[in-house]
Design a protein that fits this description.
With about 325 residues, the protein is an alpha/beta fold. The chain has one domain: Rossmann fold. The strands form 3 sheets. A 7-stranded mixed β-sheet has the order 7-6-5-8-9-11-10, with helices on both faces. A two-stranded antiparallel ribbon has the order 1-2. A hairpin with a 4-residue loop joins strand 10 and strand 11. The longest helix has 23 residues.
């Protein structure tokens, strides 16, 4: 038996220089191709980049390049592509979250800070509303009462200070997010971290809320992202995902597809001089799982009370789940 092995042709893979004994006496180009295919299958899995089939490492590189290219015009393009409706979708996410003072938020794929800024605004409005209610509880407050109330408010702000961590794998997106935060005076309570959604650089049970908006469809392993979200959330913490989904109305669906494939890439070329990146973004939307399928994936990651709400006839959906 050992002798027969030496009778089979031995070829070397051009990709990694590994050697293989081929089967059925294949020689020359056929043998090399067999070795190359064997090596590719063994070494690296295939996935999708839009409608293309690519290796996992190639997808990661190309997705990074897409967002590196669009970072400067990302916010402008969001307004152009959605006719500004993305702002309402993000507001709806915050109303769904309803964060209280002291909440610790992790916003993954947070890029230019849209969700984190809304979070800070929402919590501030909650604090101001509570202060007004406390002030009204005094019939005729003296200056001592007012002084005491403001002192209590300062103490509460210290102990119940909300924090948002914006985590993104793309340094260019974070760069423009920081610049925007400084311009809009969002400096207190924000942290910016370079990190991979599939392997987050945070301890277990650390955050009250995890959000990911229009980002999860671009990752290679959705299941790993969901598992990481579960890991870093505290018991009782909440997972929220805002993502493009399946349009429910057939007429709107046809119009939406026409707009997506015929208009959005053109806008990308005109506004950002980048047709291909926006062509990919459209294709990635159509490759993402529909609402029920994604809901099941969230449950498989361990979350409970998983539900979703469709917005704009299902063009996007907000998915929610809790860690118990």
């Amino acid at each position: 038996m050992a002798a027969s092995r030496w009778l089979r042709p031995f070829v070397t893979c051009s990709r990694c220089q590994s050697g293989f004994y081929t089967q059925n006496g294949r020689r020359g180009a056929a043998a090399a191709a067999a070795a190359g295919n064997y090596c590719t299958d063994a070494k690296e899995k295939q996935t999708h980049f839009g409608f293309e089939t690519v290796s996992e490492s190639e997808k990661a590189e190309r997705v990074y390049k897409v967002f590196e290219n669009v970072a400067k015009r990302y916010d402008v393009m969001n307004d152009a592509m959605s006719l500004g409706i993305h702002r309402l979708w993000k507001d709806a996410l915050l109303y769904k979250m309803n964060p209280m003072p002291g909440t610790k938020l992790l916003d993954v794929a947070g890029g230019t800070g849209d969700i984190a800024f809304r979070f800070i605004d929402y919590v501030r409005s909650q604090q101001e509303r509570r202060s007004r209610q406390e002030m009204k509880s005094y019939q005729s407050p003296s200056w001592q009462d007012i002084s005491k109330l403001y002192q209590q408010q300062d103490d509460n702000d210290t102990h119940l200070r909300s924090k948002a961590v914006i985590c993104d794998i793309n340094k260019e997106m974070l760069k423009f997010g920081r610049q925007k935060a400084e311009q809009l005076n969002y400096t207190d309570g924000l942290s910016w971290v370079v990190g991979n959604a599939e392997e987050l650089p945070f301890d277990d049970d650390k955050f009250d809320v995890y959000t990911i908006a229009f980002g999860i469809r671009n990752v290679t392993h959705i299941d790993q992202v969901l598992q990481e979200a579960y890991r870093v959330l505290k018991p009782g913490g909440r997972f929220l995902c805002l993502e493009f989904s399946r349009v429910q109305n057939p007429i709107i669906s046809r119009l939406y597809d026409l707009y997506s494939f015929q208009v959005i890439p053109v806008l990308g070329e005109v506004i950002a001089a980048d047709w291909k990146s926006y062509q990919y973004l459209v294709e990635s939307i159509h490759r993402f799982p529909e609402q029920e399928e994604f809901r099941a994936m969230i449950e498989d990651a361990g979350f409970y009370k998983v539900e979703y709400s469709n917005l704009t006839s299902g063009i996007v959906a907000i998915h929610s789940g809790f860690k118990f």
